[in-house]
Amino acid sequence: MPCCSTDTCSSNTAATGRYRAVLWIVLAINATMFLVEIVAGVAAGSAALQADALDFFADAANYGISLFVLGLGLHWRARAAMVKGASMGLFGLWVIGTVIWHALAGTVPAWGTMGAVGIAALIANAACLALLYAWRDGDANMRSVWICSRNDVVANLAVMGAALGVFGTGSGWPDIIVAGIMALLALQGAVTIIRQARAELRQPVSGDGVPILH
Predict the structure, then answer these.
(1) Cross-strand bridge partners of residue 205
(2) How many CA atoms lie within 13 Å of 62's alpha carbon, on the beta-carbon side?
(3) Which positions fall inside the Cation efflux protein transmembrane domain (predicted)?
(4) What are phi and psi of 211, to 5 degrees?
(5) Contact 199/91 with Cβ under 8 angstroms?
(6) Domain-located, residue 165
(7) Per the domain annotation, does 5 fall within a domain?
(8) pLDDT tens digits, residue range 153-173?
């Protein structure tokens, strides 16, 4: 027996279709920018660009997971959000390791490459953020997608600031500091996503995955 009226179900189906289309678009954008930034980051010797490249890769994987669980029950979507939260946490820990390595090596990245690629990444992530804005207050799975994109825009601005810092000081420390900030953002986002996903997993649901309201 349907759990809603025909009009409501049709509306939900249309909304899900729009969300699926948006996820495919942002998935393609993130996969493309991962390839661009990983090459540029290695060439420029920039910890911040390499960290941002890995972030693009993690986001592309997360969008793929979101597409897979779209339309499934609340608990399945919450489990997917848990996986994404854990991946964001691992990304943060990896960046911390990269920061330590570059600090010990005294790397001075190419600020011009950092700035140019940072601008391109900012444009790409701003487009993703605009596309996902309508779903920023959804369940843990939708919210995790929004948080990833929001953090990416902040990270891109920080990378551009790091490029200016490297140019002005001739030191790699601005790059290292920004990479550290990106790690903290990833860890904070991971905690937020996992906390909401755990709350949703504790929420009782009916056999068809619909939350039971008390």
Answers:
(1) 211
(2) 32
(3) 23-201
(4) -60, 140
(5) no
(6) yes
(7) no
(8) 888 888 899 999 999 999 999
